[in-house]
TrEMBL record:
Protein name as it appears in the record: Na+/H+ antiporter subunit G
A Pfam match: PhaG_MnhG_YufB
Region of interest called Disordered, as start-end residue ranges on this chain: 105-147
Keywords: Membrane, Transmembrane, Transmembrane helix
Protein's organism: Kushneria aurantia
Transmembrane annotation, as ranges: 12-30, 51-70, 76-97
Basic and acidic residues bias locations: 118-134
Length: 147
């Protein structure tokens, strides 16, 4: 197996690492345009959620691939950051969307799924116990959000 020398294998591994690095960078770059050009919060939220999960995940995968296969070292920090990112990014996007629904943020007709479809039991209501600063139960009212 003379054709399978160390230099050729390193070149292929570096090309594979470069592919994942460029793919992750392109996904992150393209999704940043989504955040800038889309019209409402619900549509805008999609870009950064995908960028952090897929784009940055691919960049971290390329980095760990480089250190494991080419540098011959293992960094547990890269694996832990990747796992943390893949767990927290979808959860934070879900919580942002839920907060937007509770605040009744307006949406454009292009948004699929009609984000204003909250069941009555899912909407916020007055607490059963009075606020400590307002024991009479009359807390200061928030101004209404324009629709």
């Amino acid at each position: 197996m003379e054709w399978l020398d160390r230099q050729w294998v390193d070149t292929v591994l570096e090309a594979l690492t470069a592919f994942f690095l460029v793919a992750g960078s392109l996904i992150t770059f393209i999704s940043s345009f989504g955040m800038v050009h889309l019209r409402d919060f619900y549509l805008r939220m999609h870009g950064p959620a995908k960028a952090t999960t897929l784009g940055v995940g691919l960049v971290l995968f390329a980095s760990s691939l480089y250190f494991i296969l080419i540098e011959r070292t293992f960094h547990i920090q890269l694996i832990l950051v990747t796992i943390f990112l893949l767990i927290t990014a979808p959860i934070s996007a879900h919580l942002l969307a839920k907060a937007a629904l509770h605040r009744k943020l307006p949406s454009t007709p292009d948004t699929r799924g009609a984000p204003g479809e909250l069941k009555p039991e899912d909407t916020a209501r007055e607490p059963d116990t009075p606020h400590p600063e307002h024991p009479g139960g009359t807390a200061p009212q928030r101004p209404e959000q324009p629709q």
